[in-house]
Amino acid sequence: MSLSKISQRLYSKWNIVKVSSLINTLPNVPRRVFSSSDTNCARKPDWNKAVTEAEKIVGYPTSFLSLRWLMSDEIANVALQLRKLVGSNHPLLKTAKGLFYNGKNNMQAWGLIVLLVSKAAGQAPGMPDMEIDKAAGVLHSQRALAEVTEMIRTSHLVHKGLVNLQPPIVVDSPSDMIFGNKIALLSGDYLLSNSCVELANLRNQELVELMSSAVRDLAEAEFVGLRDLQNAPLPARPKSDTKDYDVLIADNIEPLAVGEAMGNAKAEWTVRHILNAGSLLGKSCQGTLKLAGHPEELQRQGYLFGKHLALAWQAYLDREPFTPGSFGSFSLISAPVLFALQHDPSLYDFIEKGLDNVEDVDYEQVRERVMVGPALELTKNLQNDHSSAALDMLRKLPDSDARTALQNIIAAMQD
């Protein structure tokens, strides 16, 4: 590569850094409420420490925001185009900010978890030395799968930044919104297409089928239940009959039975977030064990670990907007809201005001009603149940630094 080409790419990388700095100073970028991984939540010091220590175990940070990706022309061009959106109200800016700043909601940790599971489980006997990254203790294919996981998740979040501009919706600065939609659509498609290429290069048909089903689940999550005009999710009307609903099916390639869960607080929350998060992380953990040649039973345990970890993570995030002193909007399909609706169905009258736009909901009244009932305690129990289930799966792996790092990440989510 010529010196001029390297200089040009370094200049592009500097532009990315400048974009992130500009985004960080925006005072009034509106917060679009999503169900997972894009909520602003307070950090605990031991979370950052747990992630930092875990990254050392697998060699280096796993995020696609590594030098290899920052130096690519396509990513640099997207960053340059993002500068044109600074000062507008496009939700893509919120997603872009999440790519640069850490916290419990960062998508970088997803690839990290996949690599930690890879290292904790090791490889089956007879794996060729050429396939193993000796420094990190994982297979090269497992590292590629971790990057695929991050790309799929990030492309999903970027695509969720699209704004509905169809009449009768009226927005400020429609030209900025149209331009932002083009960037969100094309950059999300770019990441998703690259993840498909990386996945195909692994030359494992069963893994391709498994990860394809995870992408299907992410897409299905965007069509579950009621939506406002901007596709923000609304909860189903609570049912009086709350019979148990088993969302674990024998073959996790098959779609979940969604309809039966709607209106049942725990079942609805579980189905929504398995589709939106648990499926991808669980199947990535299952896939990385498949690449290492482990038996199907251990692969199944890997899926359950990833699923329970994602759900525990989501339950923790759902509790954050209901801490004392909190204000502003929050997800209307979070566990505390769904449990509060089950406890007091009259709360649904406030939710129905958001059928056209979730911003029409009186969030402070909903927050007050949620905080006086049993919903927060039920959400805490839900988080503890999934955390305990994830830890139970971990105990089936041999003791190692990687397993300890995963345990520390789970512990960092606890009160």
UniProtKB/TrEMBL annotation:
Signal sequence segment: none
One function term, GO molecular function aspect: prenyltransferase activity
InterPro entries: Isoprenoid_synthase_dom_sf
Domain of life: Eukaryota
GO CC annotation, single: mitochondrion
GO biological process terms, semicolon-separated: isoprenoid biosynthetic process; ubiquinone biosynthetic process
PANTHER family per record: ALL TRANS-POLYPRENYL-DIPHOSPHATE SYNTHASE PDSS2 (PTHR12001:SF55), GERANYLGERANYL PYROPHOSPHATE SYNTHASE (PTHR12001)
Protein name: Decaprenyl-diphosphate synthase subunit 2
Native organism: Acanthoscelides obtectus (Bean weevil)
Lineage: Eukaryota, Metazoa, Ecdysozoa, Arthropoda, Hexapoda
